[in-house]
Structures are given as C-alpha cells and as structure tokens.
Write a structure and sequence with these properties.
One of its GO terms (biological process) is lipid metabolic process. It holds the Pfam family GDPD. It comes from Deinococcus yavapaiensis KR-236. By secondary structure, this protein is an alpha/beta fold. It has a single domain, classed as Phosphatidylinositol (PI) phosphodiesterase (TIM Barrel). α6 links the parallel β6 and β7. The two termini are about 25 Å apart.
C-alpha cells in the first residue's frame, strides 16, 4: 500500500457538517463479508512479504503462502500490450535492473528483467536474489497458481485505465468472491465498482476521511461506508486513525479494518488487542509468531 497518507492535521477545526453530509451520502448499505469477522486477524503479506523476498514476485507470493499467510496483497499496472502485471511502481527502476515505465514496455521486455536485482536486507551489502531467475509476475500467473487464496489487489494505474481489465480477469479466474479491490484513485475504484459491482472493495482517501472524522467525534454510527474494507494507516498527521471506536463501528457495519504497513512486533500486538481484522506486513513471519501467541478480542 502507499506509504504516504492524507494529512488530517486541523481536521477538528473544520466544519463538521460538510463531512457528515459527505459520509451520509457515500454509497449504499454495506454487504456482509468474511474479512470483517470478529475474533480473527488476517495475516496479510504486503506485496508478498517485501521484507523477506523481492516484492510482488511469484517467489514472494509462493513463500508467503507456504509460510501460512492468510491473504496476499499486490499492486497492478498494465504493460504496453495490455497485460496486467504485479508491480508497485509505475516504473521498473526501483525493483529491477532495467529502466522505464511499465506501461511503455511489452510483457516480453518486462520478463527479460531481473526482478530480484535490487532486493537487499542489509543496506546494499548483498543482493541474494540477483541472477536467480526472479521475474515480474502477471496477474494471470498469480491467480492460476493460487486460485483459492484470498487477495487484496490494488489498482495503481489509471492512465490508461485498467479497472475494467481487472474485472474481466477476476471473472475469468473465478476470483470475484476471493478478493478485495483497492485503489487510492477515485476514478479507478469508481470504474471498477461499475464494472464489477459484486466484488468487495476498499475505500479511497476521500471516502475514508469522513468516517475517521465522525469516529473522532463519536458519531461513527452515522457513516455509510462506500466499500467493505477500511485499509488504513495507524495514524495520519499525528491524529490516530485506528482506534477501538473506529474498529467497533466498522465491524458493526460489516466493514473490515485492515491496517498497513506494520512490521513491528509490539505494534502488531497492540493492534490485535484493538480487534482489527487484518494487518498488512512486510514480515508475515513476525506476524505469524504474534498471532500464534495472541488472542484477538471477540
């Protein structure tokens, strides 16, 4: 998930009526979903476990599943020839030995790159996955390999739009009931919801803001969430986002609260105690250990 978040500083001094009206008019009733079940905290491997393996690769996804992660999180862009690929950035510069934008490259050009080239766990002293045949993965490959694995798929690209292509791919692989689709881009999520209305979605920043505000002033019960999952950071602008009140009201509306991106064991335990439904982490191994020794509230 995106590391930057909207700034909430000064929110309490804004006119509450604007946000209340926005929340009350945002979407219809929210459907029940298994991700909002009380008493279970989902171990969500962020980009397949970026702290352990090259992110968004089949190597990472396979290892995360073998480790026992409950859910995979991935990001998607489309190649020049229209293939959906699992990669976080719009360019290949940060994670491969190549340079350029994903949307300007064909799948064949992407597959020729070393997707393990830049991964290091020791500040650049060693690069253990270089030359190991790790490549950029396609969404088709991921769905084919793990047809029963719950996933969060984040739409990163909106120019050109790829939401309709994602909907088509989900239907082809019969994954519509196994995913949460997310995006920080309002246009992308609006397009996806129109194309695939039966698929669960997370909420964009503009949809989350009024819910957080209402929670801060003890009016969260008034909110009408536009999606089925709140995928949020612990705090923003120095103001807490994930609170017991927010979690309680979200779950009451069958909305899951999934927090990103948490790699610290102490913070993981605190969030489990708050009753969150899921934790996105680069270290699913650490979270697994925490969950084995913690009992979520019911």
């Amino acid at each position: 998930m995106r590391k930057r978040w909207w700034v909430l500083g000064g929110l309490m001094v804004l006119a509450g009526g604007v946000f209340v009206a926005s929340a009350l008019n945002a979407g219809g009733s929210v459907r029940a979903n298994e991700f909002a079940r009380r008493g279970k905290v989902w171990n969500i491997a962020h980009q397949g476990g970026e702290g352990l393996w090259p992110s968004n690769t089949m190597l990472a996804f396979s290892n995360a599943v073998s480790l026992g992660a409950d859910m995979l999180e991935t990001d998607i862009h489309a190649t020049k020839d229209g293939v959906l690929v699992t990669i976080h950035d719009a360019s290949v510069n940060r994670t491969t030995n190549g340079r350029g934008l994903v949307k300007d490259m064909t799948l064949a050009q992407l597959k020729a790159l070393d997707a393990g080239y830049q991964w290091t766990s020791d500040g650049g002293k060693t690069f253990p996955f270089r030359g190991k045949g790790v490549t950029v993965a396609t969404l088709d490959e991921l769905f084919t390999a793990f047809p029963n694995m719950p996933m969060t798929v984040e739409i990163k690209q909106d120019d050109p739009p790829i939401a309709a292509k994602l909907c088509e791919t989900l239907k082809q692989h019969r994954m519509t009931d196994k995913v949460i689709v997310a995006s920080f881009k309002d246009s992308a999520l609006k397009e996806f919801r129109a194309a695939c209305p039966d698929v669960l979605t997370s909420m964009t920043e503009s949809e989350v803001r009024p819910i957080v505000f209402l929670s801060l002033v003890n009016l969260a019960g008034l909110a009408r969430p536009a999606g089925e999952s709140l995928q949020v950071p612990v705090s923003a602008g120095g103001i807490p986002v994930v609170t017991k009140r927010l979690v309680r009201e979200a779950i009451r509306k069958n909305v899951s609260v999934q927090v990103w991106t948490i790699n610290d064991e102490v913070e993981m335990r605190r969030l489990v105690g708050l009753g969150v439904n899921g934790i996105m982490t680069d270290r699913p191994d650490v979270l697994k250990r925490v969950l084995q020794s913690s009992t979520p509230p019911r």
